[in-house]
Amino acid sequence: MMVSEIDAAELKRRMDADEKFVLYDIRSDGEVAQGTLPDSEHLAMHLIPLKMQDFPKDRDVILYCRSGARSYHACGYLQQQGIDNAVNLRGGIISWAQHGFEIVSNAA
């Protein structure tokens, strides 16, 4: 089974074009506190099975983590559950930051 992937530059292009998709940060609370991608929602990885009914069917569901490994496996899991619009951000937030794209601070 092939997991669909997107790189940071393509995700930024899609954001700038105002394309419709859902962006989930599946990292831990501690990681999220260090900053997130703009317009992303936090959905801790362990909660994904409980939120299956919330994933939209009419647009891409893009997942990211720190390096892209956890989100890759999460996308594979979603595909096994019949959700075929899951897309992994290759390289995760590390790749996003290396491209110099905006990180939103979540510091209280």
Description:
With 108 residues, the chain is of the alpha/beta class. It has one domain (4-98): 3-Layer(aba) Sandwich (Oxidized Rhodanese, domain 1), CATH 3.40.250.10. It has helices spanning 8-16, 29-32, 69-80, 92-98; strands spanning 4-6, 21-25, 41-42, 60-64, 86-89. The chain has a 5-stranded parallel beta sheet. The chain starts with a strand and ends in a 10-residue tail after the last helix.
Quick description:
The protein has 108 residues and is α/β, with parallel strands linked by helices.
Task: Kindly list the characteristics that best describe this protein.
30% helix, globular, 5-stranded parallel beta sheet, 18% strand, alpha/beta, 108 residues
How would you state the average pLDDT, rounded? 95
Helix content: 25-40%
The spatial strand order of the largest sheet comes to 1-5-4-2-3
How many β-strand stretches?
5
CATH class label: Alpha Beta
Q: Report the CATH superfamily.
A: Rhodanese-like domain
Number of helices: 4
Low-confidence stretches: none
Euclidean distance between termini CA atoms: 41 Å
Number of spatially distinct domains: 1
Task: Tell me the structural class.
Answer: alpha/beta
Largest sheet: 5 strands, parallel
Multimeric state? single chain
Under the CATH scheme, the architecture is 3-Layer(aba) Sandwich
Strand content: 15-25%
Rg over CA atoms: 13 Å
List the SSEs and their pairings.
Elements: E1 4-6, H1 8-16, E2 21-25, H2 29-32, E3 41-42, E4 60-64, H3 69-80, E5 86-89, H4 92-98
Parallel strand pairs: 1-5, 2-3, 2-4, 4-5
